[in-house]
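Open question from group meeting: does this chain pack into something compact, or does most of it stay loose? Before anyone orders reagents, we agreed to write out a predicted structure and look at it together. Recording both the input and the output here so the notebook holds the full record.
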Amino acid sequence: MPRQPMAEVFGFRIDAMTSEADRHLQHRLCPFNNKVPSCTKDKANDPLGVCSIYDGTNITITCPVRFRQDWLIATDAAAFFFPSGTKWTSLTEIRLHDRYGKSAGNIDVVLVSYDEEGKITDFGALEVQAVYISGNIRKPFAEYMSDPANHVNLDWSNKKDYPRADYLSSSRKRLAPQLIYKGGILNAWGRKMAVAVDRGFFETLPTLSQVSKDQADVAWLVYQLQASDDQGRYKLVHSQTVYTQFTSALQRITNADPGSENDFLKLLQRKLDEKQLGRRIPPDTSSLLDAFAQDEVEE
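Structure tokens returned:
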């Protein structure tokens, strides 16, 4: 466990003491193409400017806007959606509705191709999935921001709410519902989808059945952060693209790998034994069902 959890704050490494890093900290700026110049994560008037955290010796991205550096995700998604040479542009935060007019959520980025007259000829949806954090990241962030120069080596390792990457919640509580609702509509329309994720997060997902690019309707765009000499910043780097089909990928992610049934039976037997001992079943009880019924009467 690192002594302190934060890798980047307002777009810069926490040990970056350059004038540009100081400007971003002072003005709470986001250098990653946010909808406004400043960071708006968590609270617009008091933003939680943590872009990424340490996960052991690795770094994992915890803010979806962090993926927008140099709009690499857009060009990578466009290479999947459209033929080479296609004119395209991007639109952000587009609301998607089902047939009953109910919202299925916002699509992070929609890439549209267009003809010489500016009319749309095709589109694809790009979803960005950052990693959830368990524990409390705002406390060490606030401590660091109170005096960045002297809190670079902040020791937070003994705190009970030390922040950690929560990959399981990221997939089950966020990614899976996104694929089910938004992805289901897009797939029904026959449109392609790209999902941009952090490498550490992708490696925790179940192994997905891969297909060729021309057979795929979902492209998993996997990225990681690498050290850069550019004024104390990390650089977003494309690690790999994994091509899958929508239905098989959704089933793989939403269906848990079954554990041992024998282990579960042992757990049930232990619980049943505890219940019998705790309830003091009378010797004349003819069955466990009668015993439980008797317990309900007594309660």
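Observations to bring back to the group:
The chain has a mean pLDDT of 91.
The two ends are 48 Å apart (CA to CA).
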